[in-house]
Design goal:
Elements: H1 16-26, H2 47-55, H3 75-88, H4 113-123
Helix pairs in contact: 1-2, 1-3, 3-4
């Protein structure tokens, strides 16, 4: 699906809500329960996707009951979501790569090192 019935917008910024919606659609847009985040409104296209992904431990919020569905997704956040989605599907997430070969590897946040290392190993072999 595009951003509407008439547009795809390939150069648009990708949001956290968009990524979760993509994954949710891959899973057949299964039903979801109650919204756990105060910034995920009931009538937004990503509502069920965020609820489903949260219920299945694919995503978490920022804290303070916020998810940030309209925020641009960062590479770090995407790596965590991809790894959590792989884990949800029963894939092996033990593969890691050496990130020290990258000049900016010291800039990777500590909370995401495992996910970035796994994603790098899975996407670049």
């Amino acid at each position: 699906k595009g951003t509407s019935g008439y547009e795809f917008k390939p150069n648009e910024v990708t949001t956290r809500g968009m990524i979760v919606t993509i994954i949710h659609r891959l899973e057949g847009s299964t039903s979801a329960g109650q919204v756990q985040f105060s910034d995920v409104e009931g009538d937004k296209y990503y509502r069920d996707a965020v609820v489903w992904a949260s219920e299945n431990k694919i995503v978490s919020g920022y804290g303070n009951n916020k998810f940030g569905p309209e925020d641009s997704i960062t590479r770090e956040q995407l790596a965590v979501i991809l790894m959590n989605y792989a884990k949800f599907n029963g894939y092996d997430i033990s593969t890691k790569s050496d990130l020290s070969k990258y000049k900016d590897s010291k800039n990777i946040s500590n909370w995401v090192i495992d996910a970035v290392s796994w994603t790098n190993a899975r996407l670049y072999f």
